[in-house]
């Protein structure tokens, strides 16, 4: 129904608004980037829905974004003829933060403005950034395909509540008017606005249109009887240009658009592939893990375009899960425009593009690991745990992945994961034929484990595996460079050639001496243990627990129990 309602923002929105206004003020011009990017998304969504229902265009198929200002009213307006919103959608999208990772985000806030503004940047600022410069925002919208009397007007001063009312709106799409705060008059200037647009939104894939600035005639008079419009951005998709024509800054700004990120990416890979299948990919590796890295329902990933038309944003079909942090676009000429998710799932074209894109990302990482180890270690800190899911998921690239993985080890003795399997192998002792590791629930537990005593004595390096994912990793990554990965806490500790004849004889003698004791311990413990053995792996501790070769490790068992299994 049409009645006017006043509603409260979700508590989180209020908090976010406060934070945003305070900590992003020094970068306030980004509000325009956010609103333009929403308008572009809305156009993309309309284009996509109209593929199956072109009545949605309502005889107005020229999608564009308008930016305008009114110096007297002190307003800046951004409007689009995209998909628009229903009343319910406005309430859901603009009054709440339904985004995943919200809780993690609020948990990390410190109250320190500099730190928090970084965090907000990572979280993504979006629509609410309008309130950095505006003390009132009016949004009018009507969804494509709905009748004119189902328009919606939403208004808020950004202080905890908003009003919403149904109105008549002949034009579909969304118009957002910012009533500028005192002192923000710099935005009531066509050149300033053009400048911001070309800085952040040049390569938005549709025209951003503004009123032409009036040119005074020879007498200095301005004729304002005719209003003319002009496109103020390049309106070409960045990825279609040749690499040589794109500056690093343009790559960085484009990344912020597609990834909803604030920071520059770590690096990118831009490829034009011609041949059997034609496509262009522009793939970015972010500098920082997003808040929802561990959320299975996360949505931002790779944007798929067909012939420069946005089709959908989907991470699963275009990147494996262990590369879910990769951002960017893939644009191909070899899929139909009306491609659906179902078609994607069984498309050979997509399989080929995906396999090649994964190779590109991995080779980019390999290059980074070789040429800029410092950058790579930054990458590893952020995304290492996710990469460790790789060998279990992506058999074809297991070897490449094995080279990319880093561990903590007894060699450095600190928790930082810097040791590659190749490093380890290069330090192996002459007669050593296995790569030894231990898994534990913490670095301290791993480092102080009694299982390491004999290795310490013999000066053999042991990898210290303490991430949750490590148990799964060692299940799929069982060999490297022809050497078996061996847990030091499992089965009979067979040091093979590392044990000399004298040691073996001494061990046998000890085992004989203590036969009686072993029998007594076995009887006492009964069903509680599978076996009792004399051990040679300890030098200081009297006893330790060992898992059988094919059993779960003690650490995995602990984790499963903690997870309620
Ligand atoms: P995000 O763009 O990351 O989703 P925003 O805060 O920028 O977050 O926007 C929130 C939501 O509001 C969008 O996802 C979209 O559903 C809706 N929205 C915002 N602006 C528009 C617009 N111009 N047209 C249609 N929907 C919009
Ligand atoms: Mg947005």
TrEMBL record:
Residues 27-184 form the Histidine kinase/HSP90-like ATPase domain. Pfam families: HATPase_c_3, HSP90. GO terms for cellular component: cytoplasm. Residues 1-341 are annotated as: A. ATP binds at residues 34, 38, 80, 85, 93, 100-101, 122-127, 174, 341. InterPro entries: HATPase_C_sf, HATPase_dom, Heat_shock_protein_90_CS, HSP90_C, Hsp90_fam, Hsp90_N, Ribosomal_Su5_D2-typ_SF. It is found in: Cytoplasm. PANTHER family: HEAT SHOCK PROTEIN 90 FAMILY MEMBER (PTHR11528). NCBIfam families: PRK05218.1 (NF003555). This is Chaperone protein HtpG.
